[in-house]
Write the structure tokens for this entry.
Amino acid sequence: MTETIRAIVARDNDGRVSGQVEELSLDQLPDEDVLVGIDYSTLNYKDGLAVSGKGKICRSLPMVCGIDLAGSVLESRSKDYKPGDRVLVNGYGLSEKFWGGYAQQQRLKPEWLVPVPTGLSNEQAMAIGTAGYTAMLCVQAIQDADVTPDAGPVVVTGASGGVGSVAVMLLAQLGYAVTAVTGKAEGAEFLKGLGAAATLSRDELARQSKPLEKETWAAAVDTVGSSTLATVLAQTRYEGIVTACGLAGGFDLPTTVMPFILRGVTLRGVDSVMASQQRRRRAWAGLGELVDAAVLGTIYRVEPLSRVPELANEIVAGNIKGRVVIDVNG
């Protein structure tokens, strides 16, 4: 076991918070019950905000960034985990209140850990990451609402991003006819490769909508919010469901009550950060069963820890397509 590790640490540099690669000693890690040797983390929009300092994510400093991690237990004071167990963590305030996954090792609370599904490698688990786990929570909410593939098309907004791309892949695998919405001109071919039956330009939904429009969607996964979400709601079919998990387009919602009281539409908020262990394990079990490794391989790339500061700026600028896995030892 190494005495020092590399990590991305956010600090206040002359009034501006940013994260850079540093060396830490093991005794600087938090005093938690499980020490995990991390293999991979991942790059999410929130990570980009934390590392670049373009968003107030870190609530205390210094902070080891990274909201995701996958690796193996090295030491444990918990009866639930033993050395060698493969585990992952998503959310729970990592990179905000607690030191996170951009490190070669981390000490963590046992109640945060989820076993990596048998069918997935640690790299694949992080290719899925919080984005894919959030997508699975949305898909399961649609299933729980009894919206079956024969009910009609399902729309996914922000489909070229991390959550959206995995949502497209999962819904297509389950037999839904997916319309993928993207603002990237080159995105259509990529999304159809994931199983999208059709694509739609972002501008067709990111507009002021009427209170009710033509009934089109049986269900939706929305990662955008604002006017896009309002338009999706106005177009959702009678007793359809819209799952909302993001605000890339804004946190406002310029809509009316009419989709809800005249069409019985359900707007289901999906939070991945503090979801219960029961919901997490169900989602990851579903991912282990559903994810096609060959298709998953087309939506991510692996980058070393040293590139995280550069990549953080890219994802905040909207220049990342698909998923980026971070090899913390590479």
